[in-house]
Amino acid sequence: MKTNNPYTEMLGLIQEHGAKYNPPSIRLAEVLAPPPELIIKLGDIQVDKNNILIADYLLADYKRAYFANGRLVFKDDKLGGETEQNACQHPHPHKMKSIEADTYDYHIEGKVGEASGLWFKDTLVKGDMLAVMPTYDMQLYIILARLVRPDAFA
């Protein structure tokens, strides 16, 4: 004969109903295939691009408006070493070892939609680690960020 403990049953109901209303947690995922065919792996499941939303800055050709202000200070007047006047018959780069000039203030700006916007060309690659948040129904996965370990820059 089985005896039910009313407290155990009540705790079970509280846990069951509480789980329904808790938001899904952020999960780690790995890129199996990069965009445009994006496939990620979360634990034992693979999710393809049809069930993924991705932060725009993680895609190639992401464009941002930008501005920068600052001061350029030049210290030396030598540029690429010695060459004779008119020695260069075709355009080519020179390595700049140093330069000297006055101090100049600068301002640069680019707006989205203009030719001067700032484009980011990189995107996700196979093996990247991601922070992913599933929707409540676990049918859509939102890629929040690409993750790296702090020692990746050492």
List the helices and strands and how they pair.
Layout: H1 6-21, E1 27-33, E2 39-42, E3 45-48, E4 52-54, E5 62-64, E6 66-73, E7 103-110, E8 118-120, E9 129-134, E10 141-147
Parallel strand pairs: 4-10
Antiparallel strand pairs: 1-2, 1-9, 2-3, 5-8, 6-7, 9-10
Write structural notes for this entry.
- With 154 residues, the chain is mostly beta strands.
- 10% of the residues lie in helices and 34% in strands.
- Strands 3-2-1-9-10-4 form a six-stranded mixed sheet, with no helix packed on it.
- Strand 1 (27-33) and strand 2 (39-42) form a beta hairpin.
- The protein is elongated and about 95 Å long.
- The model is unreliable at 77-85 (pLDDT under 50).
List its salient traits.
154 residues; mainly beta; six-stranded mixed β-sheet
**Rg over C-alpha atoms, rounded to the nearest angstrom:** 28 Å
Largest sheet: 6 strands, mixed
The dominant shape is elongated
Tell me the structural class.
mainly beta
Strand content: 25-35%
The helix content is 10-25%
Q: Roughly what is the average pLDDT, rounded to an integer?
A: 78
In order across it, which strands form the biggest sheet? Answer: 3-2-1-9-10-4
Q: Give the H and E element order.
A: HEEEEEEEEEE
